[in-house]
Structures are given as structure tokens and as C-alpha cells.
Amino acid sequence: MRRRRGLGHGRRDLVMAAMSIRPHLLCVGGEDHQLRIPFLLELARAGTRISAAGTGDPAPFVRAGLDYHPIHFNRFISPLADRLTIRQLRDVMHRVRPDIVQSFDTKPNVLVPWAARACRGVRVVRTINGLGWVHSSRSPLAVMLRPVQRALHRRAARWTDMTIFQNRQDQAYFERQGLSAQHRAVLIPGSGIDLAGFDRAMAEAATPAQLRQRLALEGAEIVMTVSRLTRQKGIPTLLKAAALVHEARPGVRFVLVGPRESEGPLAVSNAEIQRHSPYVVAIGPRSDVPALLRMADVFVFPTEYREGVPRALLEAALAALPLVATDMPGCNDVVRDGWSGRLAQPRAPHELAAAILELLKDRAAGRAMGVRAAATVRAQFGLASTVARYRDVYLRLMAAGASRDPAVNDSRPDSSARPIRL
Average pLDDT for residues 305-317, to the nearest whole number? Predict the structure, then answer.
């Protein structure tokens, strides 16, 4: 990525002027959008007006005092549903009248720029937090759909003022494929972790002994994952690795935390999990993940999915757990093999099992890696620094709008076509 040029006095004055106003941000995401509430609250404390729209439960946003607008979209292939979502997004933009629309997640990153293209004065920022199933799966359908999704991203880039990447590999891919303009892209690792909030949740949680007793896991060595229980998240590979670990170390129990029933055709079946009982236990989605992490001996993240930077892996690192992850974009931004954890190739159960067994056998080395991983996350992925970088992007866009900077303000070719004044 090109080095950012220094601001001239005039441009610097415009940025300072933008800082004196309170930009109104509409943040759009999917069903796990509530995980971004700490990010949004930190932005609000920094002086940004916040509205949110998503497909998840409104209650957490209401409790946080955030303006929330429910929308519907289908995470799977559904052109008719996508058209409805675009109309809903436009309706929300009319009601909210934001200065900036920020999108996260695969489908919103395509649909939000499309919805905003006719809304004069609205800046669009999209965060590429992973490339999704289409670019992760080896299935014939996914391979067939990749050119289609690339075309959609290329089109969305025309109506996007800034694209934020969470890892360098995704940024390089987008630049190679012409899916974003290099001068309108920036790298901001991860979505930010609320360090103080996580520490507080750990301190206030039930003790590991209490949790082990409730889950009938007393005396077991626990290997944990927190993930949607889907094929592209590597759960079938993890189950095969669990069988190998069980042969070598029968006292180990694998605890799977995360939803399964909501994952449609990509979900791992209950029968598949039950075949590995009793050494594999699926306990479903939980709201006490920091507490659960305290009782684990090793954390494994077997994804075959192109993640942004996985929040679950960041939280496990904060808990100073020995980490095993696949060598995938986003994961290898957190785990440095042999230093802050172990990396295994995706779809390689024997390699995954060997890494897990290594950390279970050499507890001192595992603890040292966990401490290094925690230090990495605290230094590079803290919420306050992440929010400051996002706010800097927003203020620069506001300043560029005031100056009619051609590199940002008029970068969308169709921005003048049948404009709708908000």
C-alpha cells in the first residue's frame, strides 16, 4: 500500500474543522452485529452519533441505548431477498439521514454500497472482515460463484468511499483483482477488543471448578473451540482430530461452543457430533465465553474460512490460552507459529491433532505461548486504538467532502444518477 502523503495546511484545517462536528454514522451488519456494540459505544464516546441496522436481536442495542433499525437479509444465495434488503437499507437511510454508512460482513459489504448509491451526500465505508464461503469453500458451487462475487465487489467499489481491511492478505487479494481502489483503502487490524470489559468479565465469572462441575467435566483436560458449527469453520476436521487425540490421551474432552441449528445446509449434523461422544461435547451458543475460556487447557480454531481477524481467537489469546489455529488469513495475524501458538494446515486432522497433543504435553511451553499471544492482542488489537483509527477515517471523509476532494468525494461514477436527497 502506498505511503500516505502528508496533509497540507489547508487540508489539515479541514480535518480540524471536521473534528469539531459530530458525524452521524449508520453501522450495518449481520446476525452477530451485537458483538460490535462496544465498538459503537466507544465511537459514541469519541463524539460520533450512532445508529445501527442489522438482522440480529434488537434487545442488546436497546439496552445499550443505541438507535437500532432491524433489517432482513438471507445469508445464502437469494437474489429476490437481496433486492428486498436493498430497499430496506434505502428506507433506513432515508429515516436516519446519516453522514456515513459503515458496513461489515460479506453481504452487507455488497448490498450497502448498492443501496446508498442514489443517496446524495452519504459516504460509504465497508470493512472486509473475511471473504466468506464463496472464497473459502472448494465446492463446485463456490468455485462457480467466485467470478460473480468478484464482479459484485468490483461494482460495489464504485460506490464506496473507503474500504477497510482487517488483514493484509485480503487487502492484497482485492488489489490484485481490482476490487478496491488502492488510494481508497486502509488496513485496520481486527474490529477491536474491549480489553477492560473482557478482563472484567473474566474476573466476575464463575470459577473454572464451578463450570467444570456444571458441565460434568471434572478432572478432564479441556480443548475448546468457539465457532459456528459449520463445515467451512473446520468442524469436521476438528472431529477427526479429536478422535486421534482421544486415542493418544483418553482423558481429553473437546468442548464446542457456538450455534449449529441456525447454520442451514452448511451446519455439521448432530449425528456427526454424537458419533464422537463422550469425548466431544457441543454446548451451543453461550453468553459467558470469557468464563468458559478460563476452564480450557487449549483453544483450537480449525477454520477453513477466510476470516478477517477472528474475534474468538483474539478472546482466547486474551485469556492467555495455548492456541492452535489453521494457517489462514486473519488467524496467522494473531498466531505466529512456535511463538504465540501453533499453526496447522486447514483440512489436516493429523496435523491439528499433533499440535493439540504437543501443547497438552508441554504445559510450560504452552503457557509461554499464551502469554505472548495475550501481549500481542493487547498491543495491536485494543478497542480504543481501533476506534481512533476508524474515527480518523470518518473525519477525513467528512473533510474531503467539505473540500470536494476528487480522490474521495466524486469517486463514485454513478453518484449523480437520479439522486435522492436525504
Answer: 91
In terms of domains, do 387 and 287 share one? no
How much is the pLDDT for 422?
A: 31
Residue of 386, 215, 382 lying closest to 288 (CA atoms)? 215
- Across the beta sheet with 67-70, the strand order is 67-70, 49-54, 24-28, 100-104, 123-128, 162-165, 185-187
> What is the tally of structural domains in the chain?
2
pLDDT computed for residue 414 by the predictor: 38
395 found inside a domain: yes
For residue 285, the SS3 value is coil
Whether residue 179 sits in one domain with residue 327? no
Residues 236 and 354 reside in one and the same domain: yes
Residues 241 and 354 in one domain: yes
- Report d(CA 305, CA 105) in Å as an integer: 13
**Buried b / exposed e along 359-369 (16+ C-beta atoms within 10 A):** bbeeeeebeeb
pTM above 0.85, yes or no: no
- Residue range 173-178: mean pLDDT, rounded: 88
Alpha-carbon gap, residue 280 to 274, rounded angstroms: 8
Task: Check whether 255 has a pLDDT greater than 60.
Answer: yes
Enclosing domain of residue 316 = 195-380
Calculate the dihedral angle through the C-alpha atoms of 98, 104, 106, 109, rounding to the nearest 10 degrees: 30
Residue with cell 468464563: 291
pLDDT tens-digit map of 27-59: 999 888 988 999 999 999 999 999 999 988 899
Check whether residue 223 and residue 353 sit in a common domain: yes
